[in-house]
Amino acid sequence: MQTLPLRSGGAIPQLGLGVWQAPPDECRAAVTTALRLGYRHIDTARIYRNEADVGAAIRDSGIPRDQIFVTTKLWNDDQGYDSALRAFDASAKRLGLDTIDLYLIHWPLPGKRLESWRALEKLHADKRAKAIGVSNFLVPHLQELFGKAHEKPAVNQIELTPFLQRRDTVALCQREQIVVEAYSPLTRGQRLDHPAVTAIARELGKSPAQVLLRWNVEKGVVVLPKSVHEARIAENAAIFDFRLTPAQIARLDGLEENLATGWDPATVA
Description:
The protein is of the alpha/beta class and about 270 residues long. The protein has a single domain (about 5-190, about 215-240), classed as NADP-dependent oxidoreductase domain (TIM Barrel), CATH 3.20.20. The chain contains ten helices and ten strands. The strands form two sheets. Strands 3-4-5-6-7-8-9-10 form an eight-stranded parallel β-sheet. The protein has a two-stranded antiparallel sheet with strand order 1-2. Helix 1 runs parallel beside helix 2 (about 50-60) and helix 2 (about 50-60) crosses helix 3 (about 80-95). About 45% of the residues are buried.
């Protein structure tokens, strides 16, 4: 599986399985399927309520723990220094893991995000979280964090597609050697039938979903497509045996429309 280096050391697989909103039984089956098909990166969160099922699937897989990259996240209700440390312990217990490969602040909660980051720095120093990062942080949130943090994030996970490119945030992350991860990289299905996407898919003999995922991959972004269906999980993994042409990338780059299909952190001060 193709990987990207992390500023804090180690590497992160460029393809991961997202399990947002996957009910426990479906989540466990999806993770089992993904691991069997070669995925080595699973992205969950406390608020998804399926950490225990992710952990069970990992244990049942028989794959050595050090070969699977696991991400979970700190939810808003648990933000703050002491509460973030407790939340990490609870997530690790549900997952059945001693260490977490990547722990993220899920949302830039005003008034608490800096104290939460201080807790994550401690978790990293104590080697309980191998890497730490943020999610849904845009330029103002990152700049605030840079001014107070002892350690910059290794990762920033944001919604990212040709239809929502967050160019200023991506550029800042690239300058600071922060890996960008794309959640909802398939627009939650809202633009899979866009004429430009379907035309490029026909040109390449690939699916529209594979085109959208490959666009992020070619920009050095980690992609986290979510599915509980084996055929889709397999299809989403088949993105490393082709490339987009410069002209195709330019056509996709021209699709920006500020389409946020989920939470929009641009509204958070």
